[in-house]
């Protein structure tokens, strides 16, 4: 009797349970990715450092914004000196000692100290006192934003009411630099001009003297431009 042959094709064997399980696990992992690890919880001290850093950034931005006020810049230049706005811009970056400011601006440290003390009298700057490793006192200066803002508001208010410059009542002699006035718009009272030796702090040329009436007229002329 002839042998019969099997004409059916051989079917591929089914994947083993182990392989099937592997595919199933991979499929579930694709649908449900692993959740990222929870952020590390900061300690109380670390939280305080983060808060202090954020507060410093905000104060720096606020200082820079306040110092853009042109009326304040002209006022403080006239009453303290042309170096005053430069000092404030340095302090707007971060607190510094008088020697650090002098080094940054390439100005004599005594001139920096005089300006800082005058601005401290207006309460727009303040300082912290610490001791170094040798026991010497270190004065680190910074901008007092609360006082600075109220001081600027006061200047703006007085200018709006009178439309005249806020000149010291006990001063009759004022000084200006003819070369630098067109750019700086600065007129100095006698005491401030005296501190700089009656020479311009920017170009070194002698100041021109003005009486009170000439000073008011010059301010009004500048305001119209």
Fold and architecture overview:
There is one protein chain. By secondary structure, the protein is an alpha+beta fold. The chain has two domains: about 45-160, Winged helix-like DNA-binding domain superfamily/Winged helix DNA-binding domain (Arc Repressor Mutant, subunit A), CATH 1.10.10; about 165-225, no CATH class. The chain is about 55% helix and about 10% strand. It has ten helices and six strands, in the order H-H-H-H-E-H-H-E-E-H-E-H-E-H-E-H. The strands form two sheets. Strands 1-3-2 form a three-stranded antiparallel β-sheet. Strands 5-4-6 form a three-stranded antiparallel β-sheet. Helix 5 (about 100-105) packs across helix 6. It is elongated and about 75 Å long. The model has no long low-confidence stretch (mean pLDDT about 80).
List keywords for this structure.
Arc Repressor Mutant, subunit A, 12% strand, 3-stranded antiparallel sheet, 2 domains, single chain, 225 residues, alpha+beta
């Amino acid at each position: 009797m002839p042998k019969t042959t099997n004409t059916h094709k051989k079917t591929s064997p089914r994947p083993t349970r182990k392989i099937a399980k592997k595919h199933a696990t991979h499929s579930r992992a694709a649908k449900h990715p692993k959740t990222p690890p929870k952020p590390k919880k900061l300690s109380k001290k670390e939280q305080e450092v983060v808060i202090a850093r954020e507060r410093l950034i905000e104060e720096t931005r606020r200082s820079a914004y306040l110092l853009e006020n042109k009326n304040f810049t002209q006022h403080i230049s006239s009453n303290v000196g042309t170096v005053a706005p430069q000092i404030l811009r340095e302090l707007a970056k971060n607190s510094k000692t008088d020697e650090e400011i002098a080094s940054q601006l390439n100005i004599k440290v005594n001139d920096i100290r005089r300006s800082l003390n005058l601005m401290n009298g207006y309460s727009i700057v303040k300082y912290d006192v610490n001791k170094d490793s040798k026991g010497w006192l270190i004065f680190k200066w910074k901008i007092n934003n609360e006082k600075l803002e109220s001081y600027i508001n006061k200047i703006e208010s007085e200018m709006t009411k009178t439309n005249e410059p806020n000149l010291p009542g006990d001063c009759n002699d004022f000084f200006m630099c003819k070369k630098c006035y067109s750019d700086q718009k600065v007129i100095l009272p006698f005491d401030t001009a005296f501190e700089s030796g009656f020479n311009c702090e920017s170009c070194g040329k002698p100041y021109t003297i003005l009486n009170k009436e000439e000073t008011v007229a010059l301010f009004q002329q500048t305001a119209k431009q």
